Amino acid sequence: MMQANRIDYRRVLATAALSCLCLAITACGSIVTSGANLQQVREDDLLRAKQAYIIHPGDELEIVHVVDTDYNATVTVGPDGNISVPGLPESIPAAGLDTRQLTQNLGDLYQRHSVHEPHFSVILRRLGSQQVFIGGEVLHPGYLEFPGGERRIMQVLMAAGGLLPTARSGEVIVVRDSATGKRMVFSIDVNKIISGEDLSQDIVLHSLDTVYVPRSHIVQADIWVDQHIRQLLPFSTSASYSYNEGKTHP
Question: What's the predicted TM-score (pTM) here?
């Protein structure tokens, strides 16, 4: 009788655990609940393309003087966003500006320090490395740097070692600064890219974008059950059996 009561007790707890697991899976909805949709992302990319290019660290610039050629220079924007040019005593901020703004600032400084009537232009010769941050369920999370321009999201995921089996591949999250300077967040369904259903989701990432790959629903539910069910059970959920004189004993 005691054995029967113990079995019923376990069945009740097992049923309760299964019910909680179902509830946990059901509760695991979309992470991004108020982010941008892909159409808004595409519109932002179009607006970005119409704007003047913003200089980034690592970009290579050429400064060409028409008359005072001694001040010609090819410079690389440093990690601090500054450049050093002939004729000016201090480094000059360049990152965050477009070439027109940088030309104006350099012209004012040339007149103040070295050249009375400067006639020159600033030319963007080469883009620096694209810098992307990636975390979550990938093999190698962290900071990635890609020389020579921007990459698509599938290329970045592969560079991070690919998705882990625990990844929520249907909702890969991207956080970035929009063309207007506001923060925006949206999600990408990698499954649709791999299947070929919607290749437009293989978007181009921009420098300093952050990519986060969440855990899958079932993994999240399993963690929840482990924290709220398994650790509270008065017995082990694993079973072992031994064979002795032709009988099995749980």
Answer: 0.69
